[in-house]
Amino acid sequence: MNKQVCTFNLGDTLFGVDVPVIQEVLRPQAMTRVPLAPSVVRGLINLRGQILTAIDLRERLSMPPAPAGVEGMNLVVRLSEDTVSFLVDDVGEVLDLEAEQFEETPPTLSKALSEVTSGVYKLSDKLLLLLNVNAAAVPREEEPNFIPQPLNSSL
Amino acid sequence: MAANDNNDIIQEFLAETRENMDQMERDLMVWEKQPGDRETLDRIFRAVHTLKGTCGFLSFSKLEGIAHQAENLLSHVREQKRAVDPKVVTVLLQVLDAVRRNLSKIERTGSEDPQIFGSVLAELQTLQSETTETPANAVLELEEESPRATATENSLRVEVGLLDRLMNLVGELVLTRNQISQIGISEENPSLTSASQKLSHITSELQASIMKTRLQPIGNVWSKFPRLVRDAAMAGGKKIRIEMTGQQTELDKSIIEAIKDPLTHLIRNCIDHGIEIPERRMAAGKPEEGVIRLKAFHEGGLVLVEISDDGAGIRPELIREAALRRGLITTAKADVMTDHDLIQLIFVPGFSTAREVTMLSGRGVGMDVVKTNLERISGTIDVISTLGEGTQFKIKLPLTLAIIPALLVKSGGERFAIPQLSLLELIRLDGAKAEQKIEWIDDVPVYRLRGRLLPLVYLNEELKLAKRHEPGPEESVNIIVLESHNGPFGLIVDEVRDTEEIVVKPLGRQLKSLSVFAGATIMGDGGVVLILDVMGLAQKVRPGETVEQRQAQKRARAEEAATPVDTGENLLLFQLGDSSRWAVELSDVTRLEEFYAHEIERAGTVPVVQYRGQIMLLMPLQQLLMPTGERWQPEFSADKLQVIVHSRNGVCYGLLVDRIIDIAREPLVLQRQKSSVGVLGSIVIQRQVTQIIDIETLVKLGTVAEEIDGIRKN
Prior knowledge:
Low-confidence stretches of chain B: 132-152, 353-364, 543-548, 560-566, 709-714
CATH superfamily of the largest domain in chain B: Histidine kinase-like ATPase, C-terminal domain
Strand order of the largest sheet of chain A: 8-1-2-11-10-9
Radius of gyration of chain A: 16 Å
Structural class of chain A: mainly beta
Number of helices of chain A: 3
CATH architecture of the largest domain in chain B: 2-Layer Sandwich
Radius of gyration of chain B: 32 Å
Shape of chain B: globular
Number of strands of chain B: 30
Number of strands of chain A: 11
Mean pLDDT of chain B: 77
Structural class of chain B: alpha+beta
Helix content of chain A: under 10%
Helix content of chain B: 40-55%
Strand content of chain A: 35-45%
Number of domains of chain A: 1
Number of domains of chain B: 5
Strand order of the largest sheet of chain B: 10-14-15-13-12-11
CATH architecture of chain A: Beta Barrel
CATH class of chain A: Mainly Beta
Largest sheet of chain B: 6 strands, mixed
Mean pLDDT of chain A: 85
Oligomer: heterodimer
């Protein structure tokens, strides 16, 4: 089964998302923070009247925050129930992949990573992890709430 | 015929037949009451006939068969071979139900249920055989008529999803329009400005029209009730009729759907437990037939639905006993609770399962569910009951869930929207001692609101937002008093902004678990603002609170306002001259005072009185409102003068009236607007035409009179 994927980077790791589910790619957007939200939720974006939840993929994969200078991009993806925006370091190109290049995710992969990938494509020079968009849109389990500052109890 | 085409035809057949059946159900209800109504009978006949025809065409033979039998029965009635009695209506209703069941079966499986009409068919035939002669086939004089022709010409079915998309697009258009008008202004280009103004008008109109497409008359839900009342009353051996007013009141489709079950439950309650059996009603001197009244109307951007019966009413002492037995309240609390408060206990979860209550007075089964379901769509419910006279449920609903009026606030540097429906009042503590007015019990902040403790919540703490800064000693404090099912609480925010109509958009599933937010909206500047869920917030606020405490809160509210239930304005009624009735909004009244005539002095020709260290201007209302040319002259007698004190910007004004009559609570819907200067309009209170004064204008008039007098004197 051949397919087209759009690639993106998180640090040194190359990922791919099925082209048909991608709605659009956006530059960094103004965002409204959501208090008490799971930490993977960076905020809400107004995309032409549609309110999107922006999901920080680095946070979702338990990766450190992007280094300074990385502006990031929004990869807007249509899921079965709603539409979300994944925040990634940058968006690459569209690749045609052959079924022969595909392999299951190795069982030794970290839980954070294996949870959200549905397989690996072997490219000539590197490996591409296929993102399972529906799994990636769900916050990690037993997530502590986002607390930017300790409570001010002197009020 | 291609499978797809066929499917389309069947879908259309199902939708149309269902509509037909709904109409027939309504007609049957009317017909039963007025069996001589030939027109209704003809409509029922046509519905059955149409069913027979289309089913024949689509070869649903069972449906066709039953329609044929029903048609025969009806033609007997038309030919007056058989009288209309409840039996006929009952069997036709059974036919209707069976047809509906069969339609569902066809929808699911594509074919008919062969067994479905067995017993109904038998009954139909029995009824037919009771007639003297049975024609082999009914003669139809209406063959040529196409009953649905007019309906289809003027309306068409549209998918709700499409309307939602249109709604979204219009919201987008509004934002774009805002941007364009901004550009128009900054470019100082007159032709662009005028074009953008035109765009603005069109967009607003378009938005309003599209919103309207989602509105449906509440009558759509109510149409099921006559049948419900008929069947349940018959089963319970009662005589009940249902009266409906305001069927045309429109509500958003989603709300219409959400209130169907709660309303059904309430009506069942009225039938089962409210209205007495005929013997008991006669014994109580009431007409044998009980009445359930449904009323819907718009008020203040909300829709009010009232369901009332003229039954036995709820006995507060039985509720009290049951609540005590269940440990929902303590004896001490119960002793100070008003009857009205006690009756509200039927909405408390845990009260509902009480078997004794069901047997004693009835109300209570599943009432907590009714309340929760209404609260889910931001509605509220209240119950009023008079022993022996009946019970009334009052429901307040938002017009639409999609667009709601909301108050915008700021806390911790972020904007939030609060639905107006749960807003009770805004309090602003100003000046040096603002912070000191907030007191602490342990670590819980409270504020004394008219002598009652109002629990407070700091929004920024609740949302774990950074505090903007420590409030300085001169800083004012904004408290938003919100209604929740556990009573009122105060939300402290940094800033209170405007009220705006906002379009509610749902949050993604990643955020569904956050009970403090009801959704999000997009502001004119394109920014996203979260909408607070007052219910969710209230739960976070007082999780450990007991029912007893809640009731104490409720009592506190009830004591604050004599009639906390209804939605009217408190009006002070007074008399001018011999008989004319006037009213002023009680909120404009500071105090009522009496002065002896000799206490009145004059500044120029204007009457004044010394009052609380001020010189208070007295305004003879009769002269201002009903000028007869005479200057008001106080008679130096021992008579006391009645004065309504109104204060504005720290200055007191005394309105001289002839007699204070009463305080009434009435919805301020003016029947006649602005009949003359100083008058807002008139309404009917206690069956008398009463004019509402425009206090703002009057104060201006009074002050001007004072100045003129001052000039004259000089």
